[in-house]
Every structure is written in C-alpha cells, then in structure tokens.
Specification:
This protein is mainly α. The protein has a single domain, classed as Winged helix-like DNA-binding domain superfamily/Winged helix DNA-binding domain (Arc Repressor Mutant, subunit A, Orthogonal Bundle), CATH 1.10.10.10. It is about 65% helix and about 10% strand. A three-stranded antiparallel β-sheet has the order 1-3-2. A hairpin with a 7-residue loop joins strand 2 and strand 3. The protein is globular. The protein starts with 9 loop residues before the first helix and ends with a helix. Pfam families: Staph_reg_Sar_Rot.
C-alpha cells in the first residue's frame, strides 16, 4: 500500500523538517542557554509586548500548564517578569526585562541564519510558512475538543 510508505507520509515529512530546523537552532540557542520553547515565548513577547500565560499558550498552540514552567525558567534567567493582573489576580501577565529585550537582535540573527539554511528564497519561504499555518488551522479545526 503506497499510502503507507514513509516517503508518502506528510506527517513524517513535517516531523523530519521540524527535527532538522530544531537541530539548526540548537547550537546558537545553547550558547545563549535557551531552549527552543523559551525562544518561542521570547518571540511572542517581542511581538505583543506583554501577554498572560493563557495568551502565550494560545499563541504557541500549547496548554497553559506547559507554558508556566518555561516562563518561570525565563524569569530565573532574568529575561522575563511575571505580575498579577490588578483586577483579577488569577491572571499572570508576562513581560520582558531589559535583558530579555536585549536578546532580540541576537535571536533575530539566529532566525535569519536558520531561514537561510532552508535553502528557500523569500517567496518560497513565505509561501511554505503560510501553507503550514493553513494546514495547522485546518487540521486543528477537525480535532474534537
């Protein structure tokens, strides 16, 4: 059954590509003592300035319980700070420290290098990114809550 060959598995192609991209990020993130999930939280905060734990989880398509320890480790590294929302103390707001803001240009350079490593020109890169975003949205809509 050809549909069960590895080379015909979209999920395997995505898994392999993701694994390769993460390996490409790893040496540079290791030098900064960051994990990939920590990098993603920082990227979200650079884009939105401050977010609640719940909002970060929604942006990264993860559960809040997954985000909380990542944010706590970033806080220990003095890259983020957490505060309680004044009108609802159950809501934890995360923002960047000066040290967290200062990493932006270094991590931007890393992202540019990894994008270059893909071998895709800007148009193909943007098209692939949009296609994968659409795929995620479409498949997620079919998953029962």
């Amino acid at each position: 059954m050809p549909n069960l060959y590895l080379e015909n598995q979209l999920c395997f192609s995505l898994y392999s590509a993701t694994h390769a991209l993460l390996r490409s990020y790893k040496p540079d993130l290791d030098k900064l003592n960051l994990t990939y999930p920590q990098y993603l939280v920082l990227v979200a905060l650079w884009q939105y300035s401050q977010l609640s734990i719940k909002e970060i989880a929604e942006k990264l398509l993860l559960e809040p319980a997954t985000i909380t320890p990542v944010v706590k480790r970033l806080e220990v590294k003095k890259l983020t700070k957490r505060t309680r929302q004044k009108d609802d103390e159950r809501v934890v707001i995360v923002s960047l420290t000066e040290e967290g803001q200062a990493l932006r240009s270094k991590l931007s350079d890393i992202q540019k290098r990894v994008a270059c490593d893909t071998g895709l020109d800007e148009g193909a890169f943007n098209t692939l990114n949009k296609t994968l975003s659409d795929l995620t949205k479409n498949v997620s809509a079919k998953i029962p809550s």
